[in-house]
Amino acid sequence: MTKIVVDVMLKPEILDPQGNAVASALPRLGFTFAQSVRQGKRFEIEVAGEPTAAQLAEVEKAAEVLLSNPVIENYVVRVEK
Amino acid sequence: MRVGVVTFPGTLDDRDAARAVRAGGAEAVSLWHGDADLKKVDAVILPGGFSYGDYLRCGAISRFAPVMTLIIEEAKKGMPLLGICNGFQVLCESHLLPGALTRNSDLHFLCRDQKISIENINTPWTLSFTQGEEILIPLKNGEGSFQCDDATLKLLEGEGRIIARYVGENPNGSRNLIAGITNAQGNVVGLMPHPEHAIDTLTGPSAQGLGFFTSILNALVK
């Protein structure tokens, strides 16, 4: 079993009110390290055995068509070792 | 004249939309998300709600429902199609309309009566209005902030494709106060606030939402 991870983040120019809310909650709890926070989504997809290049290409396609909305989001596909 | 109203799992406003269609003078036809059958309708409304629980992104999964494949095909051929609230989100996810609807800028779910101005009366859904007419209809959404890149915004403004704008303070952070847009052909309209909840003063803040439903009847009988 191998895990393929797809990280989906709002594009940098898209306002992220959820990330902003987290950023403003942190200092209220005494955490003062954050300059800014962006919130995204992570998909963990399990496949049997080592994924082939063709399978990874399929995952890329699924990330483009379903897992992300390319109008507002970017995605990264990687295989977790 | 037959106007289809789609029900997805999680749709809320299909009954009000059907009632509004009847009040506008057309026949309302229920369409089921799982059926690849448009029942010979002349136009379609995608009503508001939380289709597929808003899982993944609002409208993202509804876009792939069997009924949507046919609706997208027919809309590309010119069939009038109106998406209200969640329906607007489905239209953006389907790429029938540009841009995307994102979380309200203040993160709150809004539910209030909202004044909007009708800015394009050349679509089959807005032709009963007068240019610049201000109407008061409910606005209720969590993800109603219309976002797009600068080039798209310029295009929408330049081609008069913004069909409605919020009047007064921006309720949700939408670019250029956008409440509704249309596609290049003008047959597909997405609108964030809810005209179907404002067709009589007994149940709505006004009867001014009815204009969308008399518009489609007039467009179809032309």
What does this structure look like?
The complex is a heterodimer of chains A (81) and B (222). With 81 residues, chain A is α+β, with helices and mostly antiparallel strands. Chain A has helices at residues 17-28, 53-67, and strands at residues 2-10, 40-47, 73-80. Chain A has one domain: Phosphoribosylformylglycinamidine synthase subunit PurS (Mth169, Chain: A). Helices cover 33% and strands 31% of the residues of chain A. Chain A has a 3-stranded antiparallel sheet with strand order 2-1-3, with helices on one face. The mean pLDDT of chain A is 95. Chain B has one domain (2-221): 3-Layer(aba) Sandwich (Rossmann fold), CATH 3.40.50. Helices cover 23% and strands 26% of the residues of chain B. Chain B has helices at 14-24, 66-76, 86-93, 150-158, 210-221; strands at residues 2-7, 27-32, 43-46, 81-84, 100-102, 110-118, 134-141, 145-147, 162-166, 178-182, 188-191. Chain B is globular, with a radius of gyration of 15 Å.
